[in-house]
C-alpha cells in the first residue's frame, strides 16, 4: 500500500511540474534572468532568449549568441503565410468597398424614388384640383389654399434636395 501511495505522489508531482517546463526564459536589458509563461516583449533580441516552451533543454550559449538565418524550408512557408494574409486583407477591403458601393446605390435609388414622388405630388397640388385627406379620426377633410401652398413649398424643397 505504501508503494502505491508513493507512486501516486510521484506521478502527481511530475504532473504538477509539467506546466513549469512550459516557460520562457530570457535575459532582460539589465542582464537579469527572467522566467515567464508568456513570450518576452518584442524589444528583446532573439539572442537573449534562453528557453522556449516545448524545448526540452535550453538553447546553447553559442547558438543563442549568433543570430543565424532561418532554414531555407522555413522561409517559403512564412512568405506563404504573409502572402495569404495579404490576400485576405485585400479580399476584406474589396468586400468593404463593395458594401459601400451597394449602400451608395441604395441611397441613390431612394433619392430618385423620393424625387419622382415629390414631383408627382407637386404636380397634383399645383393642378388646382380640389384635394382631400383623411384625418386621425378617419374623417375626410378638404385641403384649403394655405395648406396647399405650404405643402407645395415643402414638396419644392424635397425636389431641390433629392433631384439635383
Topology order in helix (H) and strand (E) letters: HEEEHHEEH
C-alpha Rg (nearest Å): 38 Å
Q: What is the residue-averaged pLDDT?
A: 81
Shape annotation: elongated
Count of the domains: 2
Question: Would you mind describing this structure in some detail?
Answer:
The protein is mainly alpha-helical and 164 residues long. The chain has two domains: 47 residues, no CATH class; 89 residues. It is 59% helix and 10% strand. The protein has four helices and five strands; from the N terminus they run αβββααββα. The strands form two sheets. The chain has a three-stranded antiparallel beta sheet, with no helix packed on it. Strands 4-5 form a two-stranded antiparallel ribbon. α3 packs antiparallel against α4. About 3% of the residues have low confidence.
Topology:
Elements: H1 2-21, E1 24-27, E2 33-36, E3 49-51, H2 61-65, H3 74-126, E4 132-134, E5 140-142, H4 145-162
Antiparallel strand pairs: 1-2, 1-3, 4-5
Helix pairs in contact: 3-4
Highlighted features:
164 residues; mainly alpha; 2 domains; 3-stranded antiparallel β-sheet; 4 helices; 59% helix
Briefly summarize what is shown.
It is built from four helices and five strands. It is mainly α.
Amino acid at each position: 500500500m505504501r508503494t502505491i501511495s508513493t507512486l501516486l505522489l510521484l506521478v502527481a508531482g511530475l504532473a504538477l511540474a509539467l506546466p513549469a517546463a512550459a516557460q520562457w526564459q530570457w535575459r532582460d536589458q539589465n542582464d537579469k534572468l527572467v522566467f515567464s509563461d508568456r513570450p518576452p516583449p518584442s524589444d528583446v533580441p532573439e539572442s537573449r532568449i534562453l528557453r522556449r516552451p516545448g524545448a526540452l533543454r535550453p538553447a546553447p550559449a553559442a547558438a543563442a549568441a549568433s543570430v543565424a538565418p532561418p532554414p531555407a524550408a522555413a522561409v517559403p512557408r512564412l512568405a506563404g503565410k504573409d502572402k495569404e494574409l495579404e490576400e485576405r486583407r485585400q479580399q476584406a477591403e474589396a468586400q468593404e468597398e463593395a458594401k459601400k458601393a451597394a449602400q451608395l446605390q441604395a441611397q441613390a435609388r431612394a433619392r430618385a424614388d423620393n424625387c419622382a414622388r415629390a414631383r408627382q405630388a407637386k404636380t397634383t397640388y399645383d393642378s388646382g384640383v380640389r384635394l382631400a385627406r383623411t384625418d386621425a379620426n378617419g374623417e375626410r377633410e378638404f385641403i384649403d389654399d394655405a395648406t396647399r401652398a405650404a405643402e407645395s413649398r415643402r414638396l419644392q424643397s424635397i425636389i431641390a434636395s433629392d433631384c439635383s
